[in-house]
């Protein structure tokens, strides 16, 4: 039923909430779509503004929609749960979730290691690092920015690869016999500055998860220093703890 029943014992706002919720569940409005405005719902269902707002409040409380000031009310885009207990490929992770992964290579080139990065990677300051800046997308939507710094002497020629198509970790294993077996990382919550916001195509100040990770190959040699910036509205980070 997609109409308000005037003589029902169920309040108008709960009836409207049920109608809107059903339409979301049935895909009438898909994730990211804007719901009809308050004025449109008032005209369509013959209810008051307070009734519409109460129905929206219930949907917001359930996490089904979110409000954007000055723009309207939108269907929530499901978040991606990202485990912290294993080193995963973005491509494999998205495919496993039924999403279409894409990668845009924003930069690929050599840079000298700073003293701090050299100490982290156990190399000499100024040693060559193969640096890749890659924008990660799922179903055409930017999800995260990855800035990978690889010890170039361990993988000479790695810059020749097409890492918009080929997973970087797969290339390291296939071409250089490097398999990343362990890593340590730190996580912070930050607000996107103008540079990060521009790369991720989100508003300035958008909450992000900032992850810094050092990954080691099977012999215990550090191979990569990785900077990850995940959109806070699209990722949930989780870990399993045991006693």
UniProtKB/TrEMBL annotation:
Task: Tell me the PROSITE patterns matching this sequence.
Answer: HTH_GNTR
Q: Which GO terms describe its molecular function?
A: DNA binding; DNA-binding transcription factor activity; lyase activity
Q: Which GO terms describe its biological process?
A: negative regulation of DNA-templated transcription
Keywords (A to Z) from UniProt? DNA-binding, Lyase, Transcription, Transcription regulation
Q: Which residues form the HTH gntR-type domain?
A: 10-78
InterPro entries, alphabetically? Bact_HTH_transcr_reg, Chorismate_lyase_/UTRA_dom_sf, Tscrpt_reg_HTH_GntR, UTRA, WH-like_DNA-bd_sf, WH_DNA-bd_sf
Coiled-coil residue windows: none
Q: What is this protein called?
A: Phophonate C-P lyase system transcriptional regulator PhnF, GntR family
